[in-house]
Specification:
Blueprint: E1 7-11, E2 15-19, E3 25-28, H1 39-58, E4 62-74, E5 82-94, H2 98-112, H3 114-119, E6 124-133
Parallel strand pairs: 5-6
Antiparallel strand pairs: 1-2, 2-3, 4-5
Length: 134
């Protein structure tokens, strides 16, 4: 079983910095910084997008660009629990097979994306896909 450790450092000037296991740093919370609750949908689309790109590459699909957005719905009151995340994939490429793009997304969701696997039973996750010739 893999074990991964991440870190958070806070200083007296109210600066939060989180670091991954390779010490890549990301400032969170506060003016000009990423909000902590944004990290959950960001992790979901980051994980899934990586899988989709890898799968399409193995399928010899000529993907030029992948743009992904996630719209998250949270409760209005503390602790602001996530209720739903809708993911929109926009794949741009040359001669992309729409069915292969859809299959890559499903494989990510059902088999490869650890974030999706963790969230799927507690948050409603939906998606749609747009394929464009580029």
């Amino acid at each position: 079983m893999a074990s991964k450790t991440v870190h958070l450092n806070w200083d007296t000037q109210s600066r939060f910095v989180i670091s991954d296991r390779e010490n890549h740093q990301l400032p969170v919370n506060g003016a000009g910084r990423i909000g902590s609750s944004d990290l959950l949908p960001m992790a979901l689309i980051g994980c899934s997008s990586y899988d989709v790109i890898e799968i399409l590459g193995k399928q010899r699909q000529e993907l030029i660009q992948l743009t992904v957005s996630a719209e998250a719905v949270q409760d209005d009151d503390p602790p602001w629990k996530f209720k739903k995340i809708h993911i929109h994939y926009q794949a741009i490429g040359k001669g992309l097979d729409v069915d292969k793009v859809k299959k890559a997304i499903l494989l990510s969701e059902e088999k490869y994306c650890s974030v999706y696997a963790t969230l799927k039973d507690v948050i409603e996750i939906t998606h749609d896909v747009e394929v464009t010739e580029g």
